[in-house]
Automatic annotation (TrEMBL):
Pfam families: DUF4129. The chain crosses the membrane at residues 20-42. Keywords: Membrane, Transmembrane, Transmembrane helix. Residues 108-173 form the Protein-glutamine gamma-glutamyltransferase-like C-terminal domain. The lineage of its organism: Bacteria, Bacillati, Actinomycetota, Actinomycetes, Micromonosporales. This is Protein-glutamine gamma-glutamyltransferase-like C-terminal domain-containing protein. InterPro entries: TgpA-like_C (IPR025403).
Amino acid sequence: MRWWNETVAIFDDVIPFGLAAPLSLLLAAIVGVLWHTFPAWLPGRWRLGSRKRGREPDLRIEKADRSAVDEDQPEVDELPPLAPEVYLSQADRYAAEGRWAEAVRERLRAMVRELVDRGVVEHVPGWTVTELARAAGGTRPELGPALDGATRIFSGIWYAQRPATAGDDELMRGHLATVHELVRGGR
């Protein structure tokens, strides 16, 4: 303990207690704010594994998946003109790689594309998944349970940052099959 007493004595000789106490409180407040907002304040390139863990809640198509999309199309809030089958193919590839969060996202994209293509809902840029499910459930109430289930899975993974599992992908497949059957069989 002697080393501690000597360190504190040296520190007290350099900075008087009247100044050290407020500086310590200020330092604690800064550390607390940084801790609370972590990792939002980090530059994007320093966010360790955020892409790998799939923490980008974005229903837009990724740049690597743009081969089937017209390059002149705006990226923000646009629904790419891809068939649901393209999203399902991508979802199956992600699932085969064990990237369950991305697979769930692609199955939701396929669901949204089918709902828009079949005229169940209109595409409204900026809608959340919940708003879309509410609108589709209002138009076609029989879709409500499947869409609510899909919304809960997606939101739990992408917004609540719960790790995705193969079970989530299987549940999403079931919800997608239900929506597919009701939308195609009901028209």
